[in-house]
Amino acid sequence: MKAVVIGGGLAGITAAVALAQADHEVTLLEAKPRLGGATMSFSRDGLTVDTGQHVFLRCCTAYRGLLDRLGVAAHAPLQPRFDVTVLAPGRQAGLRRRRVPAPLHMLPALLGYPFLNFPERMRLALAALAFRRLDEKDPRTDEIRLGDWLAAHGQDERTRRVLWDLFSVSSLNVPGDDASLALAAVVVKTGLLGDADAADIGVPALPLGELHGTAGAKLLGRLGATVRVSAKVAAIEPKGDEFLVRLAGEDQGDEGELLADAVVLAVPHEQAARLVPPGALPAETVDGWAGLGAAPIVNVHVIYDRTVMDAPFAAGVDSPVQWVFDRTSISGLHEHGDGRQYLAISLSAADEYADMTVAELREQFLPALAELLPAARQATVTEFFVTREKRATFRQVPGTARLRPPAATGLPGLVLAGSWTDTGWPDTMEGAVRSGLNAVIALHSAGRTATRAPRGDENQGGPAAQKPEVTDVNDVTEVGITEVNIDADEREVRS
After folding, report:
1. CATH tag, 295-394+477-494
2. Are 289 and 420 in contact (CB under 8 A)?
3. pTM of the prediction?
4. φ, ψ of residue 110 in degrees (nearest 5)
5. Does domain 98-199 have CATH number 1.10.405?
6. Tens digits of per-residue pLDDT, 42-83?
7. Which tens digits make up the pLDDT trace of 263-307?
8. What is the number of other CB atoms lying within 10 angstroms of the CB of residue 475?
9. How far apart are CA 328 and CA 330, in angstroms?
10. Which CATH class for the 2-43+52-58+207-292+396-465 domain?
């Protein structure tokens, strides 16, 4: 089978690898100059910078399976057990699981959480147990706001801000109260209340551009697949039992058109709506994708002249800082040997920060870091810059489950992928990989693939991982930048 995969993010890479490992003739097309999608890196003054901080959990079996296939799992280590440092102005605490069976593994940490009083902790434990009774697959669950459900289960404003927001905001990229209860239930039930080790956190030790894009291109090359970057697709046209994929640009020549038996459309939902050919899906289904919207993520990058934080990462409460990560080693800054430390603040649900100037963000977040990290008060900031992903994820609010389409379309051989599709998971790296697997399964169901599973499928997480994040961002290689704005269709770099 000749298969064309459109989109080189995690969903597209996953689908292309699975098809190539099943001995199909695969061409992967990516509009940007490199693979990786939303998980990109760029060079700045000799340092490698990820536009956003992405982490994963031990329960992300499909994503971990992809890392295994790419041969980079050793560069994405997991904690021995869930352990998070929580910082507040003048205070510090830890959330750490016990080595006991689930769900008791998190109970001591929750009951001892110092940012809540004793009655709040007791009500917290009761709400956590109530999550276990939720059916996240029930369409009615997706119509409920997380904040309303938590309030109805005894969770007051402070409990929601200093505990539940730690997990829901970073996972769902919307204000905690506004999130879909169904998607929040996936996060809580799978990560916090599932297997005892499910929430152990993994932080990549390689820049994301290397971990996904470079490794993906190398593996596809070894499998005999064709990878074409800077190849933007203009149209997909059904031709009998085949598809004609037309590329944009007048200088493509004979390479501007590809015939395929199967097409995997693995691009963000706005782009997918423009490329899906008539007849593939009902118009109301495609129009409904607009209802998914988009939510921004902003990352604030600060380099100090000395070490100001000992933990590899920490969460913030009673502070505008949500999560902060030590990027000194992964960026290559440690090789300079001058003792500087590079911290990155990850701000999800960042609507209020998306259009702030760099100066305004500096004025707000440097004092906020100094409140959380006493050593930062005596340190000197040597560099400060900002990266923004204004369309990082779809807006994961109630009512979006019915807008997320399945992988299969009405045209046999044309399938959809991307974490915005119906994966059963939030818009995350795990969701993106699962969507790529779903696309290949849908092709198989339509009789468009070999009957055997792709080679190495046992590393992809097994049957449980085959049910089901991808935002297209721009390549940035300029040096000496202060700010990078990343959008699906345009790039803006401000000096």
Report:
1. 3.90.660.10
2. yes
3. 0.89
4. -70, -40
5. yes
6. 999 889 999 888 999 999 999 999 999 999 999 999 999 999
7. 999 999 999 999 999 989 999 999 999 889 999 999 999 999 999
8. 19
9. 6
10. alpha beta
